[in-house]
Amino acid sequence: MSENSQAMNDTPTGLRSEELLNLHDLCSNATVALFVMDQRQRCVYMNPAAERLTGFALAEVQGAPLHDFVHHTRLDGSHYPLQECPIDRAAPRNMQERGEEVFVHKDGSFYPVIFTASPIRRAGEVVGTVIEVQDARPLHEQQRQRDALQQIGLLILQELDHKKIVQAVTDTATRLTGAQFGTFFYNARDPEGKSLTLYAISGVSEEHFAQFPVPHNTPLFSPTFAGEGTIRSEDIRRDPRFGQSPPYYGMPPGHLPVRSYLAVPVKLGNGNVIGGLFFGHEQEAVFEAKHEQLVETLAAQAAIGLNKVFLYEEAVFAQARAERDAIEKQNLLRKAARASEQLVGAQEQERKNLSRELHDELGQRLGVLNMLLYRLQPTVSDTPAAQVWRDAERELAALVAQVRNISFSLRPPGLDYLGLEPALAQLLARQFDGGPTCLFECALPPGRLPPVLEITAYRIVQESVTNILRYAQADHVVVEINGGAEGVELEIIVRDNGRGFDSEGWEARFAGTASSGMAGMRERVELLGGRFSVHSRPGQGTRVEATLPMRLSAK
Fold it and tell me: I want to staple 170 with a disulfide (CB 3.0 to 4.6 A). Which of 200, 259, 507, 539 is the partner?
């Protein structure tokens, strides 16, 4: 007969019965701790689970108040009177008591328990108490794990910084597994799109790992980084994959001692591996199956969160690169615009110099020649040479007019002294004198425009009008110059009601012809950051449009 069976036979008369013996048989294999107290609140029975929980054998507490052994002291060290104990109140009150208390182990340590104390009744009289007790530590641990997983889930849902996510996951997993240290190696990308291998560490300072290289595809690490599955070892030094790779063939010098080892891949649902979680402890058999499951759950959460963050970061990086490229493009455009303005300025300066030379040098010489012809007139007026003189005078007058027109075309003097509107008015009055009617409309903001803007607008109108007079056979022309209400863009429109043409692919068809000057205008306009277009249909006239930015680059 066992000790507990013998105890049953030695219980007070009120509880000595076959039922109690049957109770022992039923409860000896129960995992929950069971105690039976008699009507005097003295312990008469403990099942093996109760002995394991309290550290006391039945023989040590039998016949004495159980409270004096396992519930005599509060957490703060003060005495816990039996009359205040809810467990011992169940029988006197004849009612069931439930709750959570803190027991004292035989070794003096405290541990939380969940209890149910129920009166034992016989013939309407309370003859004892049966107490069910469950160790609350596993339940508390499970609750802590649930709370930790919930917190990580919320952080992953809200956080957009991958470093904070991996550090939180590493810290939580290290704490919940009881590891001495934990690391999280993962792959990320920098703003330039280059792949990086980063890590977070918990349990020890970064100095412990700073001198060691990033783990590579050794037989021990490869399964994790390949996503093949979890590795859990009671003593990694006995694993056949350990110590097989140079240069260390095991732990690097100065590395923390590791026996218990746990490694879990962090991968997406499609199998793509983001990284791996690694944990170590110097003692053997620290990590259990529950720890493996816990880290696998955290790894799955981390994978989802990191994937979200990486997608977000990629979008941010792409936007930053696009903004940087846009800035670089703007800088290039500004440089091109400055170069174009300088080129236009140089061209116009050459035109101005040539115009001055034609006017001052050639014009003066032609004036002298005209005076010489005038002085020669009396000597030839009554001779056969008179007709030659008149022909020379006529040709000279035509040459003077042609030089004047060329000089004016090269650089209209009114543009420098009067501005764009008066210069265009002079140009149109001279070009359409005795020809098609021309309506000129001009609306410019106060003050002078930048010189390069004025000369470009002038050349566009000049080239367009020249083409109209040569090819359009128009009888009505409209020239519009509009500076805009905001003064942001200068709009130039030249349209006619002439015979028109098919403007589709006009640049290619007019290349190398007299009309190729329009292609040059387009190039000049686009170099200044503007837009240029030609719209025409046979029999429907032609419309030339150019838009230039009012604010050109600073010199």
Answer: 200
* CA–CA distance, 376 with 393 (Å, rounded to integer): 11
> Do the bridges between strand 110-122 and strand 125-135 make them parallel or antiparallel, or are there none, so unpaired?
antiparallel
CATH number at residue 549: 3.30.565.10
Domain match, 216 and 81 both: no
Contact criterion met (CB below 8 Å) for 51 and 43: no
Query: Do 124 and 181 reside in the same domain of the chain?
Result: no
| 58 touches 46 (CB < 8 A) | yes
CA triple 387-391-395, angle to 5 deg:
170
Q: How many residues does the structure list for the chain?
A: 555
CA distances from 381 to 370, 373, 395, 396 (A): 16, 12, 18, 18
| Percent of the chain's residues with pLDDT above 90 | 33
Q: What's the structural domain count of the chain?
A: 3
Average pLDDT over residues 460-474: 91
Q: Is the dihedral of CA 109, 114, 119, 120 positive or negative?
A: negative
Domain boundary among 87, 104, 135: 135
> Which tokens hold the place of 206?
């970064």
Greater confidence, 252 or 74? 74
DSSP state of 113: E
What does the alpha-carbon distance between residue 495 and residue 477 come to, in Å, rounded to a whole number? 6
How far apart are the C-alpha atoms of 228 and 271, rounded to whole Å? 10
Cβ partners under 8 Å of residue 464, min gap 6:
494, 518, 544
Respond yes or no on whether the N-terminal peptide bond of residue 252 is cis (omega within 30° of 0).
no
Convert the pLDDT of each residue in 413-436 to its tens digit: 777 778 899 989 988 998 898 888
Q: Which two tokens stand for residue 416?
A: 């420098």
Predicted confidence (pLDDT) at residue 319 exceeds the cutoff of 90: no
Greater model confidence, 373 or 223: 223
| Integer CA distances (angstroms), 264 to 229, 230, 463, in order | 7, 5, 75
In Å, how far are 81, 85, 196, 407, 552 from 324, measured between CA atoms?
75, 73, 22, 47, 22
Whether the CA torsion 169, 170, 172, 176 is positive or negative: it is positive
- Among 455-459, 483-487, 511-515, the range with the most confident prediction by mean pLDDT is 455-459
The DSSP letter of residue 73 is B
| Confidence grade of residue 10 (pLDDT, cut at 50, 70, 90) | very low
For 383, phi and psi rounded to 5 degrees?
Answer: -120, 165
Which residues pair with residue 181 across a beta bridge?
Answer: 280
Partners of 493 in the β-ladder: 480, 545
Residues 156 and 287 placed together within one structural domain of the fold: yes
Does position 158 have pLDDT exceeding 90, yes or no?
no
Opening angle at CA 545, ends 426 and 511, nearest 5: 95
CATH of the domain at 117: 3.30.450.20
Give yes or no: residues 173 and 306 share one domain: yes
Contact 74, 161 (CB under 8 A): no
